[in-house]
Amino acid sequence: MGFRSSSLCFMILILAFNQSQGTSAARHLGNETDLLALLDFKDKISQDPNGVLRSWNNSQHHCQWQGVTCDGKHQRVSGLNLLGQDLFGYVSSHIGNLTFLKFINLRHNRFYGEIPEEVGQLTRLRYLNLTNNSFGGGIPVNLSHCIQLKVIDALLNRLVGGIPFELDSLKNLEGLSFGKNNLTGEIPRSFGNLTSLRQIYLSYNNLKGPIPQELGQLTSLYSIGVDANYLSGTLPSSIYNISTLACISASSNILQGNLPANMGLTLPNIQDFLLGGNQIEGTIPVSLANAFLLEELELSDNMLKGQVPTNFGNLHNLQWLGIGGNILGCNSAGDLDFIASLSNCSNLQSLLFRGNNFGGKLPAFKWNSSNMLDQLDLGLNQILGEVPLWLRGLNNLYYLAMDNNFFSGPIPKFLGKFQMLQELHLAKNHFSGQIPSSLFNISTLYGLYLSSNELQGSIPPIIGNSQHLRYLDMSNNKLNGIIFTELFSLLSSLLYLNLSNNLFSGSLPGEISKMSNIYKFDISHNKFSGEVPDAIGQCSDLEYISMQDNFFHGTVPAKLASLKDIQILDMSRNNFTGQIPKDLEALLNVQFVNLSFNNLEGKVPIGGIFENASLISLVGNPPGLCGGIPELQLPSCPDESRKRRKPLPIRFISLIVALGIIFVALVSFCMVKR
């Protein structure tokens, strides 16, 4: 199960600092040292696709070069802004000679190699942005000498090693980001000394150990992001006491402990509280309803239990509520009362509580007509009863999942009015009746999952209106009828089709070739008959075919050898006759071929997949199958050379007989004479 993880709440200060920097040209001549340093910087750039460095020549003063800013007072280079120029190369160590530099922005380029230690010589530097490059090696300890630094942003690089504790000397630092690298070790406890720090983002690394209690000393902290690491222990109690915090993002770690009962009171400014994918226990604090600024609450994939507070309707700014993958509820009436309270949250966009122990029926209430809900996932619970009418007001839904519950009755026709719906998951319930034709009026529908219900009837001909449909699963129902000829043409965009375990009959139309992009095709356990059309060999992306347990007859199509990506081919339990096509030896990527329980005969191929007995199944065919590799234990095939030998001519036979008579006569004459 996915969970919310945010990196956006880190960047406010950094973007503001970036936009405040100008690129005005200097009015007077600059320093020769700066010129030489810039030329050496240019020399280390091997690719400049946008030509940003073309102006870096003697035709104009270096203070007027693109991306260079000079200080008006000393005529020294004070800024280097090469944002988003796709430059490829490494940073010259001579950058350390630009001692008046206050601003470096190399974001969104292709710089590689290590960050030069000489950057530590830039004692006036206030802003360093290296985001989205390929810098490797460690974080230079010498950065600790840049005591004027306010922002360090090295997001999205390939930095390794630990985070230097010496960076605690940067008393002016307000923003620190080393997220999305390959850093190891622990978060330095010394960072508690960075009293000016407002934003820290270390997510998506390989950090381990505890989150330091000392971070609670950062009384100006606005956001902390440490998602997707291996951090353990608890989220320190001191963190919950930083009243300025607007964002705590620590999803996907190994954090334990309980959520403080009063956290909604001690974090009055919290907007994003993201702690999904950990091992948090206990209950969801009722006090969270007092955090009136809360916009995103992500607690999915933990070990929370008990009931969801019914006062969350007070959170009028709430946009995301993710509590799936816990042990919430007790499979009884009243478990879902919290949903009614959320009707007051007019900004709510995502309500996700999949995979809990919620029982009973969905409560009856009237959803706010101005709702913005676009994701609703209540799958994998114990919810029963019919689909309530209040759902028909959720016209903005693009994702609706109700699968793996005990819903019953017909599938509501009003779902066809959800004209923004992309995925509809209703599998593994007790829905009955026919599939509403209205579902296929949803032009945006991308995935429709109806498997394992009690649906009857045939596939509505109007299904062709769903031209964006890619995934269709109707398996394990009581559907019947024939596959009308135009179906595959109408659904030519399908990638996945599963009609298995139903009562479909008739033949397989040759129009199956129209589904040129399909990778999985499963029509097993039905009543299909006739021959398998050769046109199936034109579905070049097929990886999985299952036709087992039908009434197909004729020969196994040799055209199947055209499916170079096929991995699973199951045509067992049918009435196929004739020989196994030798052409199937060409299927080099196949992992299993099942042709068992048919009426196949003749010589079994010995090349390709047929070289490995564990990858094929031929049991249940008549004794006519022969040959193959010895592990198959099939009888040897008759000597074909003898069968093809021509009878001797009659004249030749007569000559042999005559010679034999003469020989016998001579022998008799000699014996009489003796």
Largest β sheet strand count, sense and barrel closure: 24 strands, mixed
CATH architectural type of one domain: Alpha-Beta Horseshoe
- Quaternary structure: single chain
Radius of gyration: 37 Å
Which keywords apply here?
7 helices; Leucine-rich repeat, LRR (right-handed beta-alpha superhelix); 674 residues; globular; 48 strands
Topology:
Blueprint: H1 12-19, H2 32-43, E1 45-47, E2 68-70, E3 77-81, E4 88-90, E5 103-105, E6 110-114, E7 127-129, E8 134-136, E9 151-153, E10 160-161, E11 175-177, E12 182-183, E13 199-201, E14 208-210, E15 223-225, E16 230-234, E17 247-249, E18 254-256, H3 263-266, E19 272-274, E20 296-298, E21 305-306, E22 320-322, E23 327-328, H4 337-341, E24 350-352, E25 359-361, E26 375-377, E27 382-385, E28 399-401, E29 406-410, E30 423-425, E31 430-434, E32 447-449, E33 454-457, E34 471-473, E35 478-482, H5 487-490, E36 496-498, E37 503-506, E38 520-522, E39 527-531, E40 544-546, E41 551-555, E42 568-570, E43 575-578, E44 592-594, E45 599-600, E46 602-604, E47 616-617, E48 625-627, H6 640-643, H7 650-673
Parallel strand pairs: 3-5, 4-6, 5-7, 6-8, 7-9, 9-11, 10-12, 11-13, 13-15, 14-16, 15-17, 16-18, 17-19, 19-20, 20-22, 21-23, 22-24, 24-26, 25-27, 26-28, 27-29, 28-30, 29-31, 30-32, 31-33, 32-34, 33-35, 34-36, 35-37, 36-38, 37-39, 38-40, 39-41, 40-42, 41-43, 42-44, 43-45, 44-47, 46-48
Antiparallel strand pairs: 1-4, 2-3
